[in-house]
Amino acid sequence: MEIIKNYLEAWNTTDAAARRALLQEVWAEDGTYTDPLADVAGVDGIDAVIAAVQERFAGLVFTLGGDVDAHHGLARFTWHLGPEGGEALVVGFDVAVIEDGRIRHVLGFLDKVPA
């Protein structure tokens, strides 16, 4: 599913201007992102969360952990965060609500986190 691939691409884009442009393309203006460590709204909040994750996990990349399961404007998928081509240090599971071709909400869960 292209929108989910673009969503993960935003998490991997370290150039702030390019990431911002991608977020504005993928997310609804008032979209929300909620996981155990963050609860933000709007592109500014989502961008800040991504920048903080990139700082904490510099050099690691997000990849899909399998196929995206989607229906009725909902998409669920597992993602991995780790070194390029290496074992995932963090594994998560997200559910995205998609309206009018943009992400309205993402609810994230962390399945594996470093100690």
Automatic annotation (TrEMBL):
Domain (SnoaL-like) ranges: 5-105
Domain of life (superkingdom): Bacteria
InterPro entries registered for this protein in UniProt: NTF2-like_dom_sf, SnoaL-like
Pfam families: SnoaL_2
Stated name of the protein: Nuclear transport factor 2 family protein
